[in-house]
Amino acid sequence: MTDFDLDAAWQLHPQVSVRPERFGALLYHFGTRRLSFLKSPALLTVVQSLESEPSARSACARAGIGAPDLPAYTRALARLADSQMICGRTAA
Amino acid sequence: MTSAGCLVEEFRYGLDAPICLTWELTYACNLSCVHCLSSSGRRDPRELTTAECRRVIDELERMQVFYVNIGGGEPTVRPDFWELLDYATAHHVGVKFSTNGVKITPEIARRLAGSDYIDVQISLDGATAEVNDAVRGGGSFETAMRAMRNLAAAGFAGFKISVVMTRQNVGQLDAFKSIADSLGAQLRITRLRPSGRGADVWDSLHPTAAQQRELYDWLVAHGDNVLTGDSFFHLSGYGQGLPGLNMCGAGRVVCLIDPVGDVYACPFAIHDAFLAGNVRSPGGFAAVWRESSLFAELRRPQSGGACASCGAFDGCQGGCMAAKFFTGLPLDGPDPECVRGFGQEALAVVDAAAAPRPVGDHSHRTERARRRSGPVPVSIGPRPEGSAVAGIAEARGRRTAPAHACDQNPLAGFTSAAGG
Q1: How many angstroms separate the CA atoms of A45 and A27, rounded?
Q2: Tens of pLDDT along B250-288?
Q3: If contacts are CB pairs under 8 Å, which of residues 2-31 in chain A contact chain B?
Q4: How far is residue B204's CA from residue B379's CA, in Å, rounded to a whole number?
Q5: What's the pTM?
Q6: In A48, B124, B192, B271, which residue has its Cα 20 to 30 A from B325's Cα atom?
Q7: CB nearest A34 (choices: B64, B415, B420)
Q8: Closest CA of chain A from B168, distance in Å
Q9: How high is the ipTM of this complex?
């Protein structure tokens, strides 16, 4: 797994659809045709706010992720980046 | 965050909408494969109209079903197939369709290659014409190969080659992989079920115990690059679990819509005992999915029955509901292909004559007579004609605790990584 840059700007991949569920959400990538899931509603909040936040770190803060939980969320985001569910956002 | 185990529990108790579903658009087919799970051949005159199909797609869009697995019969023989394909993708419902390749011309292949929302699955049940055509009919190997060459030439990367594993082709696994690799395709192998016409050929076609082990070892070695539709979870009893969720999604995260709009728990369970409703009824598909009493029952905690005390149960979960049902085994008992041999023991004492028969035979009337009028070559004794009614009655009476069934490909490509 590659290192994940918490201080970079990220976004949901444009080919990914998100379906909120009571446990979190289901994700489907129409390009890679792979299904994945978010295992907590908080992670869904993080992913949904990536686009409007300057960094993944601030998206986590906005979702109320405290320092003790940050490593787990960072790992989850890294996996999402590896599977192309989220991607780096270039400056507009 | 929730653990992966808890997530599987969530799925067992069902979701507000299926993750994906199988939709058989027509029972019409140009072929007469001996193991056809839906006994296809002739079109059913009651099949959903174009307008009704569009309404189903509208519902799937509202329910946020990411994609449908369209099959049949041969779906491309419906005159409105390409129109419905365009309608679905325009409404954000992806389509993966299964075909024998009969309509995949170079022109169609180019059109398909241009859409991210379309995936194609070519059925092939032998790596050689000899093995394939014995099951799928004369000329079908060449038809499939031509379609695949057209897709490859059009630049359609990663289309699927879908193989039902049989006693005759387990030994060709490497050859299938080579065909897929040479065409830039991905191999997908699934389990033979005793469903539809498959009930008639199950005993001669299902892999032997030694072949099951061979298949399992091959999957452990190659599983990362081969799709299975999660259909071999009964083999997890050998030890190491196979990639995938290893659970039965029937009525919980997947289901089947058949050509006349009937909704079944799974594509391999076309029988009144697993009929949840019809999309033509008030409330449409969503009401069937959310309110059917059958699906509610499937989503309740299930008993593993006699299997629950077996050391392999955590892996195999009792196996496939449909495989048990159509071989006459109790739904809370072992799978007929249980790797510990308990299925064989159970089959030896089951009343084969009481095994439920698949319903809805759409076979071509002109093909040679099917075997059901005579003794079926089974090791457990003949299954006489006329047993269907008694079978259904009995099956209904004991329709309890269908602990697990596997659908065609509900969770193919499912990754359990994201989310910690």
Answers
A1: 13
A2: 999 899 999 999 999 999 999 999 999 999 999 999 999
A3: 15, 17, 19, 21-24, 26-28, 30-31
A4: 10
A5: 0.86
A6: B124
A7: B415
A8: 31
A9: 0.87
